[in-house]
Amino acid sequence: MSSGSVAISNSPAGLYELPSILSPIHPRDLFLRQKPIELELGSGDGSFLVEYARNRPDRNFIGIERLLGRIQKMTRKAARAGLDNLRAIRIESGYFLKYLMPPNSVAALHIYFPDPWPKRKHRDNRLVNDGFPALARAVLEMEGTVYLRTDDADYFASNTFVVSSPNWLMTRTAIFWPFFIGKGWLLFP
Q1: pLDDT over 90, % of the chain
Q2: List of E strands, the chain
């Protein structure tokens, strides 16, 4: 275990309490088995992430969500599923990427239906904004992937523009699904 890190919760899919919001975490210390790590930013109640983690035992997952009630739902669902490859952290996603994740430590970022902040004066609050490529580039492994899905046409156009900008390195992949169709999630192999 790295210096300054906290022991893993004995309960499956436990809520990871950050020892400090000023010191980077050591994500590999959160899991008993070392596997590639994927993050879901804005996990909500964990519906997608719990099902995805159940279908991908070859990966470890961290769900980032700032609302306590949603985090508690996610950890309950994960515990009922008996998952040991999922942890939840309560914090704001942009801050987590910028200050707490070590460089080149994440295989994939999942961002599904983020708040589109539709008013022009609030657009700087969007997670995927002009500063996002630098944040994603810093935490993603060289062949890392960003999965993004939105049902807001304006936000989709903005995201496409941001990721196609010169700030985005072509060694990273961004996969967009513009609109949610039907009920349930399409799980990919």
Answers
A1: 37
A2: 37-41, 60-65, 86-90, 106-112, 140-149, 173-177
pLDDT per residue over 136-149, tens digit each?
Answer: 888 988 878 888 77
Architecture of domain 27-177: 3-Layer(aba) Sandwich (3.40)
Structure tokens of 104? 């080149």
Give the count of beta carbons closer than 10 Å to the beta carbon of residue 46.
27
- Residues 58, 84, 115, 124: which is the catalytic one? 115
DSSP annotation of 15 reads B
Catalytic site residue 58? no
Domain residue ranges in the chain = 27-177
Instruction: List the structure tokens of 183.
Output: 């009920």
Distance CA 165, CA 81 (A): 40
